[in-house]
Amino acid sequence: MNSADSAPLELSYDFALDRDCKTLSRHVLEHLQSFGPEAQDMSALMTRIGLAGKLIARRLSKAGLVAGALGFTGEINVQGEAVKQMDFYANEVFIATFKQSGLVCRLASEEMEKPYYIPENCPIGRYTLLYDPIDGSSNVDVNLNVGSIFSIRQQVGNDPDQTGEDLLQNGHQQVAAGYILYGPSTVLVYSIGRGVHVFILDPSLGEFILAIENLKIPQHGPVYSVNEGNFWQWEEALRDFTRYVHRHEGYTARYSGALVGDLHRILFQGGVFIYPGTIKNPNGKLRLLYESAPLAYLVEQAGGRASTGQRPLLDVVPDHIHARTPLIIGSPEDVALMESFIEDRTRQAEEEFALKP
Ligand code: P6P
After folding, report:
1. CB of 227 closer than 6 A to ligand 1?
2. Which of 146, 179, 227 has most ligand 1 atoms within 8 Å of its beta carbon, as the pocket-test mutant?
3. CATH 3.30.540.10 spans which residues of the chain?
4. Which of 231, 259, 325 to mutate to test the pocket of ligand 1 (most atoms within 8 A of CB)?
5. Contact predicate 317/170, CB 8 Å
6. Where in the chain is CATH 3.40.190.80?
7. How far apart are alpha carbons 337 and 248 in whole angstroms?
8. How far is the CA of 273 from the centre of ligand 1 (A)?
9. pLDDT per residue over 260-315, tens digit each?
10. 3-class DSSP state for residue 84?
C-alpha cells in the first residue's frame, strides 16, 4: 500500500500532480486529439495568450505601486476614447508575446486604427489575433475587475496591401476565442470549437490550470446586466423588457462596467447582458470583431445565444474592423425574452403603419 492509496482521493499525489499538469498547451492537444503541426500551432498560440494574461495580471496586481498602470496616457484612440495606461501596456503585451512566434502575422486591436504586422512572422504565420487588450479599463483605477478578449482567425490570402480586408468575415469563421478575467483570481476561458473550458492561474506555478471542462450556461438565470442609466436613450422594446424584470420576481441587476466580468457571471449563474443601440451610439458601443463576436462564439459553445436583436450575432459581416453592433447575449431563454419584446414592438409598428391613411 503506498501513501496515495491511503490518502483520500483529493489529497492523492497522483490526482494533484495530474491536475497541476492540465495546462493550456496540454489541453489544446488533448481536445484536438492530435500532435500534428496545426494542433501544435494552436497549442503554442494559446500558450502565448496565457503568457500575455500573466504579464497583464502581474502589472494589474501592482497598479498604484508601479508607474504606467493607473490613469491616462493623454492619447485618444481610434474609438475616440481616452487611452488608459493599462490599455496601452496591455496592447503592447499582446504584440510582444507574439513576436518571434512564427504563428501570428497580424494583430487587430481596439487600440490600433489598422492591424499591426509582425514582419518575421508574416511569411508563414497564418493566424490573426483580434483583441481588446483591456476591456473595462475604467475599472482599473478603482481596483475592480477588467478583462482581455481575444479572437483567432485564419488569414485568407496574403493581404499584399496590408489592408486586413479578409478579416471582414462573420463570426463563424473564428477558429478560437475567449477571454481572460482579472479578478480575485486570474481566469482564462476559451474555446476552439469543442466546448468551453475554464483555467485558473496558479501564481505559484505561473501556469493556467484546468478548473472546469465543457462549461454549460444555464438555460435561464436571474441576472440581467444593462446600464439603466441609458434608459432615456433606449428604444421602447428594451424599456418594455426592463419594466418586465422590474415587475417580476426572480431577477437581479448586476452591471460592473466591464463586459468580461458581467458575462463571466452570466456564464455561471445564467441571465442576459444587453448593450443596445442608443441615441449617442445607434449601433451600440461594443465592437464586433474583438468584443461581441468572440464572446458570442464562446457563449454559443456553452449552449447560450447571442443576437443583435435582429439576427444572430455570429452571422454579422462587418464593413470595417472597428464596426459596432448592439449585443444581447446569455442564456437562451433570457435572450429570447428580450427578443420577444423587440418582435412585439416591430409588429405593433407594422400594424400602425398599415392603418395609416
Ligand atoms: P457604459 C467598457 O468600456 C465596455 O466596452 C464594456 O466592457 C462595458 O460593458 C461597457 O463598455 C460599459 O459601457 O456605456 O455602460 O459605461
Report:
1. yes
2. 227
3. 19-212
4. 259
5. yes
6. 223-355
7. 13
8. 11
9. 999 999 999 999 999 999 988 999 999 999 999 999 999 999 999 999 999 999 99
10. strand
- Pocket probe for ligand 1: among 227, 285, 324, 327, the residue whose CB has the most ligand atoms within 8 Å is 285
From the list 222, 209, 213, the residue with the least C-alpha distance to 192 is 213
Determine the length of the chain. Answer: 357
pTM higher than 0.90: yes
The CA 144 to ligand 1 mean position distance, Å, reads: 13
Q: Whose CA is nearest to atom 13 of ligand 1?
A: 257
Class for the domain spanning 223-355: alpha beta
Q: Tell me which long-range contacts 243-250 makes (C-beta under 8 A, separation of at least 24).
A: 244/337, 244/341, 250/222
Residues 165-199: tens digit of each pLDDT: 999 999 999 999 999 999 999 999 999 999 999 99
Q: Is 135 in the pocket of ligand 1 (CB under 6 A)?
A: yes
Answer whether 136 contacts ligand 1 (Cβ < 6 A). yes
User: Dihedral of CA 32/37/40/46: which sign?
Assistant: negative
* Beta-carbon contacts of residue 163 (< 8 Å; ≥ 6 apart): none
Fold for domain 19-212? Fructose-1,6-Bisphosphatase; Chain A, domain 1 (3.30.540)
